[in-house]
Amino acid sequence: MKFIDLFRLSTRMFKARTSRTLLTVLGMGIGIGAILFLVSLGYGLQKTLLERITTSESLLTLDVAESKSGLVSLSKDVVKNIEEMENVAEVSPAFQLTAQGHLENLSADISVIGIKPSFLRLGGIKIEQGEELKDAEPEGVVVANSIAQVFGMSLEDMLGKEVSFTFFIPEDNQLSENSLTSNFKKIESDKKYKIVGNVESEENIIYLNSSSLENIEINRYTQLKVKAKDSDTMGAIRDTILEKGLLVASLSDTVDQANQIFKIIQLILMLFGIIALIVSAIGMFNTMTIALLERTEEIGIMKSIGASDRAISMMFVMEASVMGFLGGLGGVGIGILGGRLFNVTINFIASHFGGEAVSLFYSPLWFVVVIIVFAGFVGFITGFIPARRASKIDPLDALRYK
To answer: Among 34, 39, 100, 147, which one is least packed by beta carbons within 10 Å?
Structure first.
C-alpha cells in the first residue's frame, strides 16, 4: 500500500470522528502547553536574572581584594605587576574614601569610590538613568539609588545637579577596613561634581573618576577588576593572583552556580508538566483503543483484499503520530499564549504598585522544536500497542466481529 494511501486513511478520522479527534488533540496540546509554560517560566527567570547581573565583559573579569591577614596589599606596584601579567586585557583599580557630600543646602555622610570609568563596565554594573563616567568629563559622578533618599530627592531631580565633598583621609593613607580606627585628615574639596547617572544599590555610594582627585595621593587600593583576554585564560590568571596572597572572586562562578540551581528548577517544573502530558497520553491511548474496536470489521475487509499486517500497523501508528504532532503544535500555541497572558497580568499588577515590567517567559527555539518532535513521539508510542493488536487480528474473526 502506498504511503499517500496510508496517510489518507490515517487522517480521515478528522471527518469521521471530528469531535473526539479534536478533543484528543486538545488534551495532548494542554499537556504539551503545560510543559512549555512551566519550562519557559524557568528559562525566563534565569534569563532575566542573568541579564541584570552580568554583561559579556563582566564574565571575563576577576574581582581582586586583599586577604583578611593583610600581608599583601593592593599597592601601586602590585597593580602594575598584575597589569603586566600574560593574557590580562585590562585592569581597573578602585579605592574607597569616607566623605561628606554636600548637595544644595543638605549634607550627608557617604562613601565615595574612586574608579576608572571602566570599573563599572567590567563589574557588570549598569547605568539605570543618565550616562556613564567618561575620561573626557572627570567631574562627572554616578550615584546609587539610595543617595536620592538620603538627600530627600527623586533620582530624576538629582541628575544634572552639582555636589561637593569633604574627604576624610587616614593619616597613614592606608585605605583599608581598619581605617575606621585611624586618625583622619580632613580635606575640603573646592570642586563641583555633576551627577550624570545612577546605578541600583542600597548602599550610600557615589562613584567618581579617580583622575579628578589629583590633590589626594593614593598608594593603596581596596579592590581591583582584572579582565582576561578570554575565558580559557581566566583560570591561569586566577591561580597566579592567588599565589600572590590576594583574594580572587569571579562573577562567572556565581553565574555557574545560578545556572545549576535553575537547571534543577526547570527539571522540577518539567516534571509537573509531564504529569499533565501523561494524563493526555492516557486519553489518546483510550481513543486509539476505541478506534481499533470500531474498525475491527474494516480491518478484516482490508486484510481480505490484500492489505499486509505492516500496512495495518502503520495506519494506526501514523494516526496516533499525526494527533501527537498536531497536539504538539497546538500545545506550543497554548503555552506561548498562556505565558504572554500571565506575563501581561503580572506586569500590570507590578506597574500598579510601582514595580518594573519584566519578561518572565523565554522559549529557546531548540526547545520548541524538541517539544513538538517529542509530542509526535509520544503519539507514536501511544499508538504502538493498538497498532500491534490491529496487525494481529485474524481476517475471519474480524469479519464476524459485531
So the answer is: 100
236 plus 94 within the same structural domain: yes
**From residue 331, how far is each of 10, 33, 120, 234, 356 by CA, in Å?**
21, 4, 43, 43, 30
Q: How far is CA 166 from the centre of its chain?
A: 41
Would you call 311 exposed, middle or buried from its count of C-beta atoms within 10 A (0-12, 13-18, 19+)? middle
Of 178, 211, 244, which residue constitutes the final position of a domain?
A: 244
Reported as a single tens digit per residue, the pLDDT across 122-172 is: 888 888 888 888 888 888 989 988 888 888 888 888 888 888 888 888 765
Same domain, yes or no: 350 and 278: yes
Domain around 310: 3-54+257-399
Q: Any idea which residue has 517529542 for its cell?
A: 374
Say how many C-beta atoms besides its own lie within 10 A of residue 398's C-beta: 19
- 113-133 in b/e form (b: 16+ CB < 10 A) is bbbbbbbbbbbbbbbeebebb
What angle do the packed helices 3-11 and 309-352 form, to 10 degrees?
A: 50
Distance CA 107, CA 75 (A): 32
Say if residues 35 and 371 touch (Cβ distance below 8 Å): yes
Over residues 289-317, the mean pLDDT reads 77
The answer, yes or no, to whether residue 180 has pLDDT greater than 50, is no
pLDDT tens digits, one per residue of 188-211: 888 889 999 998 888 889 999 888
Given pLDDT bands bounded at 50, 70 and 90, which one contains residue 337? very high
Give the containing element (helix H, strand E) for 227. strand 223-228
Q: Cα separations (Å) of 138 from 26, 196, 208, 321? A: 63, 11, 8, 67
Rounded CA Rg of the chain: 33
CB-based contact 99:107 (threshold 8 Å): no
Is residue 225 located within the same domain as residue 363? no
Report pLDDT for 155. Answer: 82
Number of domains into which the chain is organized: 2
Exposure string (b/e) for 315-348, b if CB count within 10 Å is 16 or more? Answer: bbbbbbbbbbbbbbbbbbebbbebbeeebeeebe
Same domain? For 90 and 234 the reply is yes
Query: What pLDDT is stored for residue 181 in this prediction?
Result: 44
Alpha carbons 110 and 69: distance in angstroms, whole number: 27
Q: Which of 187, 264, 224, 303 is closest to 61 using CA atoms?
A: 224
**Cα–Cα distance, 86 to 23 (Å, whole number):** 65
Residue 60 belongs to a domain: no
Q: Grid coordinates in use for 200?
A: 541600583
